[in-house]
């Protein structure tokens, strides 16, 4: 009886070991469909070790860094080389009121068309001389009031929304 119990235990252990080896062999996948190997100095995920995953990270990270650099360069260009003509024409294209926007920009800046115009007595700023409270009430209030693009688009939006009479210049 003792020998029979011993033989059954050995047979059970052997069968269990065979099943574990078969499950851990090539092609064995977990419930999520990925293959993992861990043990005896080996670590792999989907048959790729840490070196391959590190190389993939470095390759993808270089792409991200290049995209960030391109974004910064484009943003710098848009912020430091503003084109008033382009900004007012963009607002006229989007919202209409082209001649009105040009007339008001001319009047509000005293003919200079400077996007950095500032009226110290009223606190009005920018190409269309927005008061801070009026500027914040537009959809462009989170942008800089000194940006000719945001300023012109805000002026066009105000005209479209029926608020074109808020300027002293008509």
Protein described:
The chain is about 55% helix and about 5% strand. With about 170 residues, the chain is mainly alpha-helical. It has two domains: about 50 residues; about 80 residues, Lysozyme. The protein has a two-stranded antiparallel ribbon with strand order 1-2. The longest helix has about 30 residues. The model has no long low-confidence stretch (mean pLDDT about 80).
Give, in spatial order, the strands making up the sheet with the most strands.
1-2
Instruction: Report the major sheet.
Output: 2 strands, antiparallel
Provide the CATH top-level class of the largest domain.
Answer: Mainly Alpha
Residue runs with pLDDT of under 50 for 5 or more positions: none
Look at the structure and give the mean pLDDT.
Answer: 82
Helix content: 55-70%
- How many separate domains make up the residues? 2
Radius of gyration: 34 Å
Q: What's the total helix number?
A: 6
Give the DSSP E fraction (strand runs of 2 or more residues): under 5%
H/E element string? HEEHHHHH
Q: What name does the CATH topology of the largest domain carry?
A: Lysozyme
Any idea what the shape is? rod-shaped
Brief digest:
By secondary structure, this protein is mostly helical. It has six helices and two strands. It has two domains: 52 residues; 85 residues, Orthogonal Bundle (Lysozyme), CATH 1.10.530.10.
Q: Characteristics of this structure?
A:
single chain; 170 residues; mainly alpha; Lysozyme; 2 domains; two-stranded antiparallel ribbon; 56% helix
Topology (elements, then pairings):
Layout: H1 2-24, E1 36-39, E2 42-45, H2 50-80, H3 84-95, H4 98-108, H5 132-136, H6 148-160
Antiparallel strand pairs: 1-2
Helix pairs in contact: 3-4, 3-6
């Amino acid at each position: 009886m003792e020998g029979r119990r011993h033989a059954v235990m050995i047979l059970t252990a052997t069968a269990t070991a065979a099943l574990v080896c078969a499950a851990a062999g090539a092609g064995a996948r977990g419930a999520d469909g990925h293959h993992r190997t861990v043990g005896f100095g080996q670590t792999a995920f989907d048959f790729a070790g840490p070196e391959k995953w590190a190389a993939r990270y470095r390759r993808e990270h270089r792409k991200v860094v290049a995209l960030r650099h391109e974004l910064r360069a484009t943003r710098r260009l848009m912020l430091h080389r503003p084109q008033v003509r382009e900004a007012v024409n963009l607002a006229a294209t989007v919202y209409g009121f082209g001649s009105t926007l040009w007339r008001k920009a001319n009047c509000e800046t005293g003919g200079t068309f400077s996007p950095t115009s500032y009226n110290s007595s009223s606190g009005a700023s920018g190409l269309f001389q927005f008061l801070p409270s009026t500027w914040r009430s537009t959809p462009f209030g989170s942008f800089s009031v000194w940006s000719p693009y945001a300023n012109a688009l805000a002026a066009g939006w105000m005209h479209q929304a029926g608020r074109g009479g808020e300027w002293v210049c008509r």
